[in-house]
Amino acid sequence: MNGASPLLLTDLYQLAMLQGYFERGMHETAVFEFFVRKLRPGRGFLLAAGLEQVLDFLEQARFAPQELEWLRATGRFSDAFIAWLADWRFEGDVHAMPEGTVCFADEPLLRVTAPLPQAQLIETRLINLLHFQTLIASKAARSVLAAPDKLLVDFGLRRAHGAEAGLLAARAAYLAGFSGTATVEAGMRFGIPLFGTMAHSFVQAHDSETAAFRNFAHAQRDNTVLLLDTYDTEAAAHKVVALAPELAAQGIAIKGVRLDSGDLDTLARRVRRILDDGGLRTVTVFASGDLDEYRLRDLLAQGAPIDGFGIGSRLDTSADVPFLDCVYKLQEYAGKPRRKRSVGKATWPGRKQVWRCHDGQGRMAGDVVGLEGDVPTGEALLVPVMRGGRRLAAPVPLSDIRRHASDGLAQLPVPLHGLQESFDYPVEISVALHELAHLADVQMLQAPDES
Amino acid sequence: MNGASPLLLTDLYQLAMLQGYFERGMHETAVFEFFVRKLRPGRGFLLAAGLEQVLDFLEQARFAPQELEWLRATGRFSDAFIAWLADWRFEGDVHAMPEGTVCFADEPLLRVTAPLPQAQLIETRLINLLHFQTLIASKAARSVLAAPDKLLVDFGLRRAHGAEAGLLAARAAYLAGFSGTATVEAGMRFGIPLFGTMAHSFVQAHDSETAAFRNFAHAQRDNTVLLLDTYDTEAAAHKVVALAPELAAQGIAIKGVRLDSGDLDTLARRVRRILDDGGLRTVTVFASGDLDEYRLRDLLAQGAPIDGFGIGSRLDTSADVPFLDCVYKLQEYAGKPRRKRSVGKATWPGRKQVWRCHDGQGRMAGDVVGLEGDVPTGEALLVPVMRGGRRLAAPVPLSDIRRHASDGLAQLPVPLHGLQESFDYPVEISVALHELAHLADVQMLQAPDES
After folding, report:
1. Among B125, B218, B330, whose Cβ lies nearest the Cβ of A205?
2. CA B145 to CA B418: how far, in whole Å?
């Protein structure tokens, strides 16, 4: 599945519309914004992510000759249009919230200002990239809040929705505060710390559990984490204790054990006691298996002696909220504000900015969504990141993004630190934006229909 | 995000275990099987999919020099092991259910027979590929059953979890019986029929809705589907009627209209009436917006005059069941059956086959999961597809897979045609398999722990 073309990763209607724009010479400046219409239950805030991959896409997107040939062969497009597509480049401006910024519904995370055919064609892939990482970073942040001092590792690649989902989920979880991932390619590509233990198959392939543990310890001397639940968890813990002196004599310190099934609270207590009684107080207990932030919260509230968690499918698919109600909407064209008024899906027109205020303790107190020209009422969250199709700065190191996210999570209003609260963070629409929306409605109603 | 390495798309523990196998010379034959442990509520059956991409992966998987160099630099692996990885190839055998086969929990969809280090290393990506397409095909089949005579189009790329998810969701939905997709690259890569209309931004960018409709009709003369809900759906329908004669005079027949918000049942009736009264009886009504099989069923039960549906996020993320409880487990090694006995996650050991029986009407009556050598009790569902790392046949055309799926859906027991029933299709475990599981338990208990 390699070699996907960034520009054919689009909906057919983008190309159909582009042909319309092309034929009428509609290439004046358009302003589109990406935002989430509504937060779903279970998400009191979002963490913006995916900008880095969007900027890569915008810098590199162009049609390959064989793609144009294929488009021509569909018979849907004129030769003149196909020839024009050959020169298609993104040369617009982008403003965006830095990755790792806490954000809310109605707030643009990103704004594109470009000739209409450029701003239009990028829609599908831009949403695809921003949506997914924002989805996963927002989900991951909840585990970080639920278990702030624990080792949290992304285990989700196998049930992530394809290769890119697995890779980008590892990145999104790490920037949200996870300790690392099991996905090797995410380590190579993004420099994310890698973690791994062993699988049941390793134990099963040996004729005894102790033989499997011994073999693994020798093969992974500095990283010996032993899986206990293939047959009987407590019996396996006793085998670890029995094996430890032999390994110690060979210079191998067992680092940890992993539990992957059963009642994790009870088993963790029993295993902890067996390890402690066996003199293995420094051996950590790591848990996995159908976990998410709710299970973490409950296990820690019960006092389960667990030092780290591997979180897989429920993280990488954002299982309770598997997609966000996000869109990329035209807000201005040819200098005029544009407003969609569909039932339940009306938009705020114009070029917008988001300002954030903090209280005396440094916690977030409320945001204002206004027009770019409004008098600032706090910290402006959207910053210029691309001009004329070129990045304004080198990619932000992932460690910096991670720190920014961590700062943001620390500044969340107290109710948003919990998992279940229905706390509505105040997001106000500025007076000027209300007025522009009204004006856009009036202009639209006055427009002669036959033009 | 192109150029993902298939072999580094893996969990770190696979490489850690491989080093253990390497050091002990554990390369005897292993048998792993991929299956789903339990069906979740809302999925009475599954449709197997993804085999084609798995076979591609197995044929092509190898380490690139720079990947090996990176692995070496992590300090986790010995030089001898890295050198051995350079020659790693998959040279095993694969048995699998053909894509599009209806299947159930506990039934292996695929079996790998290969030297242990080969069968182990492929686990993560193999699950990643088989899981996702099976997930989406199974979801898509439900819309096909709910709206068997309607045009069903995948609209999900933008909120699919990354590029590969969008592409493979288009493929999985099509093989399950969808009419096509909006994803252009899926058209080019898989030959899937493409469908598309127009976006709200196209209407907004014009100074009047009629101007937008006229422009689009000229740009897409053979495929004029007009979006009605940007401002006021019924008013837009009247504009379509008013514009139709002018377009007809220019040889353009409007093909359809699309509704994307509001009460789709009521709006479809009103729009249908406006179109009919305006002499546009052949213009079809297409609906989209937050749809899934439940909404389709309800709209059709109400008699909404809708001819086709665009189904997006809820399809491409399988929103109600965003992942399956699927695994790839070691069932035999070095000639001995292997069994995992973890609480709630015990496996059936040995090399298995699935047989299916039909009743007198040709409907599926029950399956038996047994050992490969059992006396056949119906149609064998697992067939050989790869030997010695090479496919046994050319890829199956997608149209054939689609027909096979369609045949399977037609043979489903009547209760599984509905969406909500809690019907448990009978899947029996053969006597010989019960006996082997017992034997594996006994062997494991008798095994000397210190070996």
Report:
1. B330
2. 8
Q: What is the pTM of this model?
A: 0.97
Per-residue pLDDT tens for B291-341?
A: 999 999 999 999 999 999 999 999 999 999 999 999 999 999 999 999 888
Q: B166–A220: do the CB atoms touch at under 8 Å?
A: no
- Sequence-ordered list of residues with C-beta below 8 angstroms from that of B152, at least 6 positions apart, any chain: B140, B143, B144, B173, B177, B178, B179, B308, B309, B311
Alpha carbon distance A8, A5 (integer Å):
5
CB of A363 closer than 8 Å to CB of B223: no
Tell me what pLDDT residue A451 has.
46
Domains, chain A, with CATH or none: 12-136+322-446 (3.20.140.10), 146-316 (3.20.20.70)
Interface contact flag, A204 B450, Cβ < 8 Å: no
* Consecutive H or E run containing A238: helix A233-249
Q: Classify residue A271 as exposed, middle or buried by CB count within 10 Å of its CB (0-12, 13-18, 19+).
A: buried
Nearest Cα to B49, choosing from B333, B409, B405, B330?
Answer: B405
Asked whether the predicted pLDDT for residue A277 surpasses 90, the reply is yes
Q: What are phi and psi of A173, to 5 degrees?
A: -65, -40
Nearest CA in chain A to B340: A230
CA distance B422 to B408: 19
Q: What tokens were used for A95?
A: 């403003």
In this predicted structure, what is the pLDDT of residue B451?
46
For residue B109, give the nearest of B328, B263, B304 by alpha carbon: B328
Residue whose tokens read 């749809």: B291
